[in-house]
Specification:
The protein has 2 domains: about 120 residues, no CATH class; about 70 residues, SH3 type barrels. Helix content is about 10%, strand content about 40%. The chain starts with a helix and ends with a strand. Strand 14 and strand 15 form a beta hairpin.
Amino acid sequence: MTEEAERQQYEEVQKEENSGQDEIEKHPDGEGQNFVEPQAEDAGVEVDNGVAGSGVSMSFADVEETVTAKEAVNLRDIPSQGEDSMVLATLINGDTAMRTGVSESGWSRVEYGGGTYYAVSSYLTTDLSYTAPGKVEGTGDGLKTKFKNCSDVMTAKIEVNLRALPSVTNPDATVIATLHNGETVTRTGINEEYGWSRVDYNGQTLYCISSYLTPAQ
């Protein structure tokens, strides 16, 4: 996940936290609907338009509508987060793509820049006037964000950046690592106002957007 994409997605998290709804996705990832966990995460998928692969069969209902990203969304060569899936582009809020298909598994087929790609549907919107809420600026060492202590074993819904500070705008809030689904961290603190979690990752105290985490099974 690029830092620009994460910054875009984080702004949507603030809107969703304020409205009392679940995420990204979203962002990475940002929506006014519940996060839809794509069901094609196993490496290799077979879709109805001839994308090669094996494993989950996925069909798309044909649509024709213009969409934009609620914040930012990765555009992939196949509808999967498996190792055989490649991120070829990123659609950000304000850019548009033509959605040509929707899958019940939580994926959209889109035309963008002359290519056909696949994106997580919950990160897209047909509301082309959608704008993200204002940025939350971190200052200094990020101590504007206060955390309530907790102890929870968490994993990423898909993936999430782990940062040095709880901010996507502070230049000191560098991305130290990326947590992927199936990998676990211990959440030691949570801030519900701004939507950040403090986590222990390999002995380091890092920070990530709470809505991209889910309890580990």
